[in-house]
Amino acid sequence: MKTLSRDLSWLRFNARVLQEAQSPTVPLLERLKFLAIFSSNLDEFFKVRVATLRRLAKLKKKTRARLAESPKRVLKEVLTEVARQQEEFGHTFREQLLPALNAEHIHLLSEKELTDKQREWTAKYFREHVRDLLSPVVLDDDLHHLFLKDQTVYLTFYLRQPVAKTKKAEAERVLIMELPTKRHGGRFVRLPDEGEERYVLFLDDVIRVGAAELFPAYQQIDVHAIKLSRDAELDIEEEVSGDLMEKIRSSLAKRATGYPARLLYDPTMPAEALRALKQKTGITDEALVEGSRYHNFRDFFGFPDFGEASFHYPPRPALPHPTLPRTGSLLAAIGQRDHLLHPPYQSFDYVTRLLREAATDPRVSAISITLYRVASKSEVVKALLKAAKNGKQVTAVVELKARFDEESNLFWADKLKRAGAHVVLTPPELKVHSKLLLITRREPDETTRQYAYFSTGNFNESTADLYTDHGLFTANPALTTEAAQVFDYLRDQTTTPELHQLLVAPFGLRPGLNALIDYEIKQAKKGHEAYIILKVNAVEDDGMIAKLYEASHAGVRVELIVRGIGRLVPGQPGFSENIQQRGLVDRFLEHSRVYVFAHGGQEKVYVSSADWMTRNLDRRVEVAFPILDEALRAEIRQLLNFQRHDNVKARDFDNTFIPAAAGEKPLQAQEATYAWLKGLKRRLAKKIG
């Protein structure tokens, strides 16, 4: 079966991010942010995937032979592609973005480009704002071991040619220090404007200017930057015994001291300095990766703004919902009909409002919720704390294995426990990735009714402004009863729910999807219309890829919209000729998952938290929920159609932009989505009228 390496596929995705930084149609400072996203993504890739490949490559030969792919071969291919992308990244920054900044009278200078007047100003700034933040460490015989923090830029100083022979001034010295970005308040320093010309300097270069004052005993001072990424793949899922919370706390400590996955260094660094660095840290040659003069481009998220609207995307304020009330009871509105929510086009505040209402409603008796990633100052958790204080039975299923959010989740789990909430910590072998909220209420007629919110996105106000997601508010018993069964399963995992509407991993999602695909295959073989439209972040699982190949071979039309990893190879004669694949990278991060099946003319539409990856199907609790309301199905399909026909931001499998056909108007899915949702209330009112 022909597939693409998972890691090479992920690198293709990051190449699409880099394409946005290269696009002149993207506002200038947004292009810099895409460079920051690319850099941040690559850091995580080394911390997780490259580190894992290196561990696998060190397994015994017999053990490696059982793996589907040779980790040594994949690692070699990955590092080759990373080197190519790094070169393209540098070219994009130097040859495209710096000239574009210059054209807008913004000049990002190095210390070598400063005028005498600017150098004098910078030297003064160094003395007044930077010097006291510096703590250089000498790499000499007195230092037995040097520990470098993860994801932190350091500057090395190679000192030669003492001004005078003294005990303090040896012929050659190597020092290192952390770049004090956080204590300084950012990576960039704005110099005084000169007319309409604006000037910016890296903090690194401010220190280069001040190095002579820092080390007055030396005539030659070479300053270079390095950055270390440590192994962050903690293999927590393999831990099957002991107290999970303590294991997480222990693993967080290990992450800070994890195995070095990559040391980025300036290739112009003197060999003596690099040798001393390797000797004191124990870093091996395999972890060394040539970088450039500057590292940690994620710091460009903090590049000076200059207050010009044209440098950013035009404002897209969250739209009011067409059927949910701006004020008054959301529970009452949900009790009347289902509603779809589409953050960030529509405000996530409807979710937090619902929780606040439930927390204070005297008729609400219980609230159950899954928490995977929450905001640092979470309004969601604050509402849950208030509900617990008001005597509601609050059950929070907190996922402690959400990578890079473990510490935050530990904090909120402790807060909820102290408030009297029932906190469910998932078992080590299972990760809860589903996004569910269930509210139980005693109605005025003394019956009990449940209200649910199913979502593709986290209960996180911060990411809700950046990620495109779909959420369903419903009081339909066909869905809420099954949501309650999922929460029962999460509490004890002793019984498997009997579900008819929801497809739930790890027990029902894979067989449910296989059954739906099999139905399409049967329809195609009968000569009936058969199609599958799949929008996800990743298609990685071998079993599902094989099933889609089988469907294609049977004549089922398969359309894939894949943002990230896509191991399936489309358009190949004999097994995937009926499969098309495209991906979208634009202003917002595409995060929703939608599965559509023709189903003999009775189209089925599922929305889900799950990608088609082995971990999502077999080792996580995921929920795919059907859109039962006909009007809401049409709504989802309309938004999906914008993605299917995008000819501005869509790329094919090979990352080639898909152009508009002859006579076809440009269609940018995210812009079209915002405009369509903006007019939805008017269209609904006209339809009702």
Q: Which tags fit this structure?
A:
polyphosphate kinase like; Methane Monooxygenase Hydroxylase, Chain G, domain 1; single chain; seven-stranded mixed beta sheet; 689 residues; alpha/beta; Endonuclease, Chain A; nine-stranded mixed beta sheet
At CATH level 2, the architecture of the largest domain is 2-Layer Sandwich
Helix content: 25-40%
- Which structural class do you get from the secondary structure elements? alpha/beta
- CATH topological fold name of the largest domain: polyphosphate kinase like
Report the CATH C-level class of the largest domain: Alpha Beta
Number of helices: 20
Distance between the termini: 55 Å
Mean pLDDT over all positions: 91
Instruction: Give the biggest sheet.
Output: 9 strands, mixed
- CATH homologous superfamily heading of the largest domain: Polyphosphate kinase middle domain
Counting structural domains, the number is 4
Total strand segments:
27
- Shape designation: globular
How many whole angstroms does the radius of gyration measure? 28 Å
Strand content: 15-25%
Catalogue the unreliable spans.
234-242
